[in-house]
C-alpha cells in the first residue's frame, strides 16, 4: 500500500543512479509540473523533461540512463514527469518516452523513444 503512494522517480520502483549535482527533479502532480515549467521559462535554464509512465517498459529501460547522464551535464536541468501523475499537463504527449528540450525558456527540440546514445547526443547538442 505504501509503495503505490510514492510518486515521481521514487514511484517507478527502479534502482536509479544517485544524482550528484542536484539538477534532477521529478514532477509529482500537474501543479508541480506547471511550477517547474514556469521556473524553466523564468530562469531561461537549459532543461530536458522526460515524459514517461511507470507501466511503460521502454521508459523503464531509459530512465536509469536519464538519471545517470544528469551527472554528466551539471549545467542542465533534468525533470522526470510521469504522464499518469500529471494527466492534465501531459495531454499532448502521445508517445512514451518523449523528451522535450528547453533553451532560454522556450521548447526547442523533441525526441521520441529510447536510446541512451541518441539521448546523450541530443543532450550534448543542447548543452
TrEMBL record:
Residues 38-120 form the Thioredoxin domain. Transmembrane segments: none annotated. Pfam families: Thioredoxin (PF00085). It comes from the Eukaryota. Residues 1-25 are annotated as: Disordered. PANTHER family: THIOREDOXIN-LIKE 3-3. This is Thioredoxin domain-containing protein. It comes from Jatropha curcas (Barbados nut).
Amino acid at each position: 500500500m505504501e509503495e503505490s503512494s510514492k510518486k515521481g522517480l521514487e514511484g517507478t520502483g527502479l534502482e536509479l543512479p544517485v544524482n550528484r549535482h542536484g539538477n534532477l527533479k521529478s514532477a509529482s502532480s500537474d501543479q508541480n509540473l506547471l511550477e517547474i515549467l514556469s521556473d524553466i521559462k523564468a530562469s531561461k535554464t537549459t532543461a530536458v523533461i522526460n515524459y514517461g509512465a511507470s507501466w511503460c517498459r521502454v521508459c523503464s529501460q531509459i530512465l536509469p540512463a536519464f538519471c545517470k547522464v544528469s551527472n554528466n551535464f551539471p549545467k542542465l536541468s533534468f525533470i522526470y514527469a510521469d504522464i499518469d501523475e500529471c494527466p492534465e499537463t501531459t495531454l499532448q504527449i502521445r508517445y512514451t518516452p518523449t523528451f522535450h528540450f528547453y533553451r532560454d525558456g522556450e521548447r526547442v527540440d523533441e525526441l521520441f523513444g529510447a536510446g541512451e546514445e541518441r539521448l546523450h547526443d541530443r543532450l550534448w547538442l543542447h548543452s
